[in-house]
User: Fold this.
Amino acid sequence: MRRSMIAGIAKGLAAAGALLGAMLAGPAQAERDAARGYFFGNSLVYHLSEEAHRTSVPFWVGQLADSAGKDFATDGQWGFLRNFAADLPPKPNWAFPGVEDAWPRHDADFAAQDFDAVVVTPANFIQFQKPDAPYHGDPDDSSPLSAVLAVLDHVAAAEAGARLFLYEGWADMGPVTGGFPPEEPGYGRYIDLNATAYPAWYDDLEAAIARARPGLRVARIPTAQVLARLLDEGGLLAGIDPADLFADASPHGTPSLYFLAGMVTYAALFDAAPPADFEVPKDIAAPIRETYAEIAALVAEMRPEPAQGEAAREAEPLPLREIVALPPSGLRPDKAPALGMGLAGLDDWATQHPFLDLMKSARPWVGHTEDRWGGVSTDYLRAGGHLDANGWPLSIPDGATRLETVFLTDMPAEAEHLRGDYVMLYDGQAEFELTGRATRVRYEPGRVTFSYEPGPGLVGIAIDALPGDDPIRNIRVVKQEMMPLHEAGAIFNPDWIARIEDMRVLRFMDWMRTNASPIARWEDRPRLDDATWTAWGVPLEVMLALANHVGADPWFTLPHMADDDYVRRFADAVRDGLDPRLKAHVEYSNEVWNWIFPQADWAKARGEDLWGASGDGWMQYYGLRAAQVADIWAEVFGEAAEDRLVRVVAVQTGWPGLEESVLTAPLAMLRLGRMPKDSFDAYAVTGYFGYEMGGGDMAPVLRDWLDRSEAAAREAAEAQGLSRVALREYVRKHRFDAAIAPMTQALREGSLRELVEEILPYHAAVAEEAGLRLIMYEGGTHLTARGAQVDDVRLTDFLAHYNYTPEMAALYEVLLQGWVSAGGTLFTAFVDVGAPSRWGSWGALRHLDDANPRWDMLMAFNATAPVDWSDRGAGVFARNAQAPEAPSASEPLPVPASDR
Assistant:
């Protein structure tokens, strides 16, 4: 951690917090003579040590209150945030020796206790991700934010006048210092953490609470910040022995630490400086006793604004939409392009349609039973020998009525390019029929023609019987007008090529089925003659053909289980098959840090195999294996590696500091003989914004906006004299209009601002220090519903609508400009084409006939953004005018059925 940089971040966050506090704060309160507090706490509040009553914050608050002649009574419960939320109403299970019990009859109701202060304590080891990010492994999508809101909502309803506090505690020490007692420079970094990134997490939490509950006032008990001020260079306790304060690396503390925390908590609860005449006990560390008066003055200076209970205030009018300046449509680069693009995953419901042959994006074969469509899985068919090595049907298992594959599933009606006549060609024999949206079907031996128009539903090929000696295979489904191209050997849909041909880089993560990939050996790789490419991924030969055809650098993400032989053969094929003017970007797997994906668990297990259990072993293993993969590629390319390779390492953007476990990785270094960072050329991050708006904590706010927006649309319709059908249609068309501006404001002032002003500059500094080029592997909108909100049709419809508005394009402009200003080079958007759904609006285009402001903004960036970070000219990325022919399926070795 670099103190000056992190201090700058903290200063900006503190300024934002001060502004928010000024907006919400009420009039100053007089010093209080009494306090009745309830603590939702953990060992940061009360540590059950051998001196339990003295390693207790409430104990020291009580001692200070007695000295000042004030009354203090308290009660509380031990646990973690999500337990507090799940176990409501409050259930006291703590007693604080030496302090009056505020809830002597625990069978009585919480609301009857007249608490005037409630303190909520988050754990100190959850700050590696945002407050609104779900807890790891939580099936309910709950987060620290949603848990805090649940507790605060309950308390506010039960004790309307109670003041609400967040207790900051102090940061977890172990991940920073590596153990206890701490040594330099780790201890210095730990002090920095308490001054900057750790309280910044609380800034984020408070801001999110303010957005979700505008009428709720919450104050902070800033223990970590006070400790950092005391312990930092020049601080009142700069020379104190860490063992005088901390007992371990969790870190639990000594009575001296809890005494300091008690001083800070006293100042917050009583809105007063700790009493000047307090006689500090002799078991408190001497440096604290000797500087008590100065510490008390600092605590008073840093105490929070008085917290007040407040009824929800009257809703302010929604802001109005403003005119957005947009770039013209259709901009194309006349220099080297600037933009990378992730290619959407291949599925039967995907709207990308990159291939002329629709069978290559069809769903793998499944079987139906009498009572269940798809009741016989592809895996069952494969394991039972009912599919051949390429995935074509051989037989129908007992209990199944038919086999079926489907494509063109639920295509948007606006995708007019799909409307028309189609040809299905096949070898072999079968009793089958075309199902679903196929109309005007005509069957001939080896050939079927049909018509199709996009809409809800699918087209299926349903097989009722198969001959044992000549089963149907080699099915191709091509639009009639594209047949000449297909017969000439072309692979790619020209409508799709026209959309992506100007890109600088194409990232193949989803095409390669990287997440949860089962591939480990070269024999496992996808093959050209696979029945469909949705099962195992798109073959390497096809990805190389695309890159060469459009003149774009390919970005490959190799499977996490791939052995060295696979890596070497893959690199050999790219070296020999890729246009030498193009650079192959190579990355080991995808988001190995992300516990959503199995590769994170796999890396954790491999790390434990090598080094035993450790807090960051999965990331150190990622650093090790990613470096090994990069080294193999460099060896294969030899002297040409510098000109033809970009070796990528990716990090978790929202966890500042975790990247050190990848780049420097001391355990990996012992095996490599050097730091992993020396094996890479580029440091890759994400650039997402909007995640905070889709969870349950913000759902009440969004629903309020939508209620008011719909009411405004109805009022406007009635003002125009509309009624009945005309009124309903007007409201349907304009029901979201008034909710656009508040959403824009929330995004601009929330996660987007944090991203461009804090997170990206932080990672730019890390990349520079590591000697790596800063690139983005995925970026753009993350405005999507989460948890139970995915079932709220109106809310998900609004989010999908908003994602393609001019306002979203304007937010992309802020993101792209912020990226360049931070020192970013290649920006890779996620993804090219995909229909919006309740799960997200990831496609920059919704379908191939789409036009929208967000796409136009990306294309303007591609055409005009600076590319002076590279000396490669426009000619390198020029499209090959000749359409690529399909690679020969006979060249790769056939894959035995046992390999799959």
Notes: Confidence is low (pLDDT under 50) at residues 1-29, 309-313, 890-900. The radius of gyration is 31 Å. Residues 356-490 form one domain.
